[in-house]
Automatic annotation (TrEMBL), chain B:
Keywords: Membrane, Transmembrane, Transmembrane helix
InterPro entries, A to Z: A-galactase_NEW3, Ig-like_fold
One Pfam short name: NPCBM_assoc
Membrane spanning stretches: 360-380
Gene3D superfamilies, sorted: Immunoglobulins
Protein name per UniProt: NEW3 domain-containing protein
Span of domain Alpha-galactosidase NEW3: 267-341
Species annotation: Paenibacillus soyae
Amino acid sequence: MERSWVWSRLPRLSISRSPASEKPAASSAFWVMVRKEVGDHVRSWRFAILMGIILLACIGSVYSAVTALRGGSGDEQGAAFLQMFTLSDGTLPNFIAFVSFLGPLMGIALGFDAVNTERSKGTLSRLISQPIYRDDFLKAKFVSTLLVITAAIFSLGFLVMGLGLIVIGYPPTSEEFLRVLLFLLTAVVYIGFWLNLSILFSVRFRQATTSALAGLAVWIFFSVFYGMILNLIAKGTAPSAESGASDVMGYQKLMLALNRLSPSELFNEANTTLLMPSVRSLGPLTMEQVVGALPSPLPLGQSLLLVWPQLTGMLSATMICFGLSYLLFMRQEIRSRS
Amino acid sequence: MRKACRQASILALVAVILWTGGLFISPQSARAASALELYTPYTAVDAAPGESVSYAIELLNRGGETMKADIGFQNETNGWTYELTAGGRVIKQLAVKAGGSESLSLRLDVPLEIDKGEYRFTVTAGDAQLPLRVFVAEKGTFTSKLEVEQANIEGHADSSFTFSAKLTNQTAEEQTYALAAAADNGWEARFTSGGNGVTSVTVDPNASQTISVELLPPDQVKAGTYSIPIMAANSATKAETTLEAVITGTYGIGLNTADERLNATVKAGGTRSLQLIVTNTGTAKLEDISLTAQTPTDWEVTFEPKTIRSLEPGKTASVQAVIESAEQSLPGDYALNLSANTSQKSADAAIRVAVKSSSLWGWIGILIIAAVAGGIYWLFRTYGRR
């Protein structure tokens, strides 16, 4: 009901504009939709519950990181600030583990009914009958939800940084700060992927429950079953103990490649590298590469270059999902509810 | 009767002739017949310069009454000193009972500065005389002596040279000597005696004292033999000797980069050249300096030139090192050890090389993202705004 009230205000907006300037008005209509969608999300119970869960998880992980830091297990003295995100005293998973586990839930929960509920309620046809572009509707759905997610993730991240300042007592270096910002951006892209996937399902499936289940199924598949399947494959293809180094390397590379099909693996590798400057390689290492290597943190540019393939993969997957849902949505027929 | 008278007169004449002739021929025997006699068993002795010769002399009285005699000493040469004593005192006159004897002693000091030869003296007591002879077997001196047993010591430029010198006072008096060393510029000489640093020592006559001389060469001393005269002198006498310190050259080599930065950046699989400076920090010439590198696996370092034929002390030589990193190197820091070796010494330079991965894949990633974005843009253009 609320939503129909929102859209009922649109005609008045279109009346006020001059007929000559069609385009700016259209874009302003887009931003009006975005603003309303954001408002809807923020006020919804769904978002409140999600934020509650994630906030609790974050506080728990920060508490465990602080305990670990105070207990002196922070081994790299210089990077204490980054360890707020990666360290754990063992009682609770660390911050990035929570984000990689609960982030997909957030994306799916905010996107699974984006299109099909509007369709089933009949508000979609009413909306499209307004003088707005059809693709603006889908874009507005995506952009508004992504904005909400960005705001949520960044506020959580800055919350942890603030707590870190209090606990550690000295400010981060600019590089550490940039690393945290890049990590938060990566998290947004990662959740954006799940959001786009669930929007794709919501375009494809007429029933909201079906789309929600499809999204959850993919999430659970990647977070639970994919690892088991990989284990099976690993056991089947493991080279014998007598096999040469090249066989072992090939096997390791194959397993790594299979593992990297999972978006959560890509996200974890990106995080590990961004938040732990001492990580120098993500693949198997040969002795030749290790000889003479000094344990030292990588500069940010090199860390970024190291995980650039992962970031590329995540960003591309996100965009492809969006493109698919766009394609599907634009080719669908919108009928008024009979 | 006349015959008896003539015989008596001839006898008397012979007696007179005998008497007077006897007087004429031996006046000594007449004096020997005097009642006093001086006696000592050793009338001719050998002595060294600076020694004292003691004589125990007896004065005998063969007469029938107590006799007094003045004691005298006749000295032909200067420089000798004597002392005639009896009963612990210097004696001038001596009285001897009839038929008895008195003993007195003579001490004769041989001077230090004396030629070798025979010297005669006479002791007199009244009209009794005792000639004495002293043979000086060697020429005596009035000097001081400074002797070093081992005057030549060899060592490195950074070691100290300690000599042990013996200072002998061969004069008759106690002498205080000032000690000095005429060392070359930069050398330091320290005199010690009995563990204390000293600048002068006092030596009793005919005694000696051991002095340690420590020589410290200057920092940048060149290899070679150095003569350092040392001297113990005062206004009366002086003694000098020469110490010899032989410095063997030290070998020292240093290796650094031209700008003294020990880090470098290289792309994985790329090359980087470093300007190295080899310095001879020692005092001896270095021959055949070869440059080697201890690298991570599959890295290569080539030097230009590979060896330096010779390098004079204090001189530097520059070497170009081209570091080629392996294709498979991880991004981050690697340790690279460069060393310059000679058969005597070697120097290391540990260089931290930061490897940067190639940005090729970064650009490929950007291309992929751009392609996907292009695809979506194409979707917008094809399906949007209908």
